[in-house]
Amino acid sequence: MYKFIGVRPCTFVYILLMVLTVFTWYVGVSGLSGLSFAFLVLGLSLLKGHLIGDYYMGLKTVSGIWGWVIVIWLILPGSLIAIAFYSAS
Amino acid sequence: MKNRNTPPGDLAIWIFIMAELSVFAIFFAVYAFTRANNVELFNESQLTLDRNLALINTLTLITSSYFVVRAVAAIRENNAKHCFNWIIAALLMGLLFLLVKSYEYNHHYSEGINLRTNKFYMFYFSLTFFHFMHVLMGMVILAANAIKTRAGNYTPENHTGLETGASYWHMVDMVWIILFPLIYVMR
Question: ∠A15-A18-A21 over CA atoms, to 5°?
């Protein structure tokens, strides 16, 4: 799919990234804290990283290990951060 | 649909990107585990950061990344002029990021906050300045891409250099995407 109703997929992803970023900011300024919100924000950030890898870096069309490098990278620090926050709660 | 075995751009930049990402991953993990032993200190210090400026910077980097995607798309569509314009727009976004971050640093220093204030600020300044230097390096690469685009060195068939610069810039964006919630929001 190159364009959908005249809009490029990268533009859809851009709008989604902006919305998720504003939501993350809202969680911060609203003072929403605790493990649930920390995990929610972390999960959304990992999703955003995955979208950048797939649609901006072009890894969606890459097969084999190179197509997974960003996902693998996101899982590694993401898991460690989650473990650290869980152990601190 | 998967149609290639290697990522866009020079494979060497991807080795470099993986090395850079590994360093950032270690930094992130060390920050998180240090916080686990100093939760109150980290939560109190985090409140002194300006989340509004952090939001502006995050939106700025995401927008710059989008502009770079459009630049690569333009050269693939054989439109070097548009490609050049998109790269310049991305560079301006990068410059805005640096200005906002510099303003933040200046604000902290004027309040007497620095690397030695406490563990949180040690991580805050180290992590964000390390990233700041990556933005600077990314802008140098994008500027080189802009010059080569202007000179007509990229074609729809051969624009590996542009893809290489784009991949590095997206990496810089992605690191900030994790850094923003970790330092400014998660508590």
Answer: 150
